[in-house]
Design brief:
The structure holds 2 protein chains of 2 kinds.
Chain A: H1 8-23, H2 29-66, H3 75-83, H4 92-109, H5 114-120
Chain B: H1 2-15, E1 21-30, E2 35-43, E3 46-54, H2 66-78, E4 86-89, E5 99-103, H3 111-116, H4 121-124, H5 127-139, H6 154-167, H7 173-182, E6 193-195, E7 204-207, E8 210-214, E9 221-223, H8 226-231, H9 252-260, H10 269-296, H11 302-307, H12 311-323
Antiparallel strand pairs in B: 1-2, 2-3, 3-5, 4-5, 6-9, 7-8
Classes of the chains: A mainly alpha, B alpha+beta.
């Protein structure tokens, strides 16, 4: 990277901390609530920057080995294959791919989600 | 803006036969599409607390216009159902457009407070039973004055939901799987009734004596009564209290016992679970609707942008329910 510090993660952190410490509590309830949502959004951005690439390629590799006969399969192709009835709903490998896909997405979107916390225990 | 809104409220109430003054007008929520305002209304030496509910000028794709929502509440109120009394309904010609005014019901609707504050500790154990009773009362409302509402069986519910999902051109493998799976399940064969279709914490007002009122009727329609029982079990409505299947506070047996204390029909837990899975998928699609309203619409909304990243929560709940014996 040619860019100076703060890193992109540090920049986001600084905006988050500002919103948490200086903004949120100064606002009426309904705006405080929206500010919390804005803070959560920044946390998603932060996590996706940190691990998004790795999680995407891990998931796409699994989809690749499930759909061996298709060139460059994607999330869209997997959805289409299920929709067209080309995949057996009882196929354990298909289930594994769907579990992995959902877990990896939630680990970025909201790792505090109750079902996620239960499943990684 | 507040002054103008107060004047418009006064004139709508005047048309409905209430001649008085508005004061202390303040927003309770201020979403991108729906607004809720609280105010005092002073008439004949008496001050009463009231609520203004205002929707977008152009109606949304799935929600009823406010006038219809208010009409349903009126009918449920006449049948002694647990809803706030509607006082005045606005229409396109009126300055408030898509809106209505109702009495304020004292109590708490914020899920986290109901699930975590000591004030509600005493009643928490009885809430599932009370919710079952309230749902049954809604299902008892005669349909003769509600024939203008959408009437859908499960096949139509699924078809409509699929078309909505497909429209956004964001293919979701887990949703595709669940749509296919649901087409072969048993949803119970009952005569359709009025259903609230969004009966869960956030839309329920409690005080220290228990459930006082059911609000937000914009998704109500005529459908399979088990839909309401499955919906309140959807994990998104447990607000972090995953272990308590009903709304984050109770057990399915208590919900069903409450229902059966009003309506005596044979309820099957597996059928209700199928409705819970349908409900989880439905909430996922509603998240998509809200997300794309932000992405394609004229107004920026950080809540709606954020809700796009909650679709994955419903996917995780679906794979948990379908493959891992999730509750």
């Amino acid at each position: 990277m040619i860019f100076d510090r703060p890193t992109i993660i540090e920049l986001i952190n600084s905006v988050k901390t500002f919103l948490i410490n200086d903004v949120k509590n100064e606002l009426p309830n309904y705006l405080g609530f929206k500010t919390q949502i804005a803070i959560n959004v920044l946390s998603i951005v932060q996590r996706e920057l940190e691990v998004g690439k790795e999680l995407s390629s891990e998931t796409l590799e699994m989809i690749n080995s499930l759909l061996k006969d298709i060139d460059n399969p994607s999330i869209d192709t997997l959805a289409k294959e299920i929709q067209n009835g080309n995949l057996d709903l009882s196929d354990e490998n298909l289930k594994k791919v769907l579990i992995k896909l959902s877990k990896n997405k939630v680990s970025v979107d909201n790792p505090n989600y109750s079902t996620y916390k239960k499943l990684i225990k | 803006m507040i002054d103008e809104l107060s004047k418009n409220i006064e004139s709508l109430l005047k048309e409905a036969g209430f001649n008085g003054k508005v004061s202390d007008l303040e927003p309770l929520t201020n979403g991108a599409s729906n607004e809720t305002w609280k105010f005092n209304f002073y008439e004949n030496l008496v001050t009463q607390k009231m609520i203004l509910k205002k929707g977008p000028d152009a109606p949304s794709s799935i929600a009823l216009p406010k006038s219809k929502e208010a009409e349903i509440q009126k009918i449920v109120f006449q049948e002694q159902g647990p809803v706030p009394n509607v006082l005045a309904i606005s229409n396109e010609k009126s300055s408030l457009k898509n809106a209505y005014i109702m009495m304020l019901v004292e109590g708490e609707s914020i899920p986290r407070k109901i699930l975590r504050d000591d004030t509600y500790k005493q009643i928490r154990d009885s809430l599932a039973f009370q919710c079952g009773q309230a749902i049954a009362k809604i299902h008892q409302v005669p349909l003769n004055s509600l024939n203008w509402l959408d009437n859908k069986d499960i096949t139509q519910e699924l078809e409509e939901l699929y078309l909505t999902y497909e429209n956004f051109k964001q293919p979701q493998p887990v949703f595709e799987y669940t749509f296919k799976w649901l087409r072969n399940q048993d949803f119970g064969d009952f005569p359709n009734t009025l259903i609230h279709a969004d009966f869960r914490l956030g839309n329920l007002i409690f005080d220290k004596n228990g459930l006082q009122s059911v609000i937000d009727w914009e998704l109500a329609h005529i459908g399979n009564p088990l839909q309401d029982l499955g919906w309140i079990c959807v994990n998104s409505w447990r607000f972090g209290k995953h272990e308590n299947v009903v709304g984050g506070f109770g057990e399915i047996e208590d919900l069903l016992n409450g229902y059966n204390s009003i309506i005596d029909i044979q309820l099957d837990v597996q059928q209700i679970k199928n409705w819970q899975i349908f409900g989880t998928l439905r909430w996922g699609v509603i998240c998509l609707i809200q997300t794309f309203a932000h992405l394609l619409g004229p107004n920026n909304s950080v809540e709606r942008a954020a809700i796009g990243r909650r679709v994955s929560e419903t996917e995780l709940d679906l794979v948990d329910l379908l493959f891992m014996e999730g509750k």
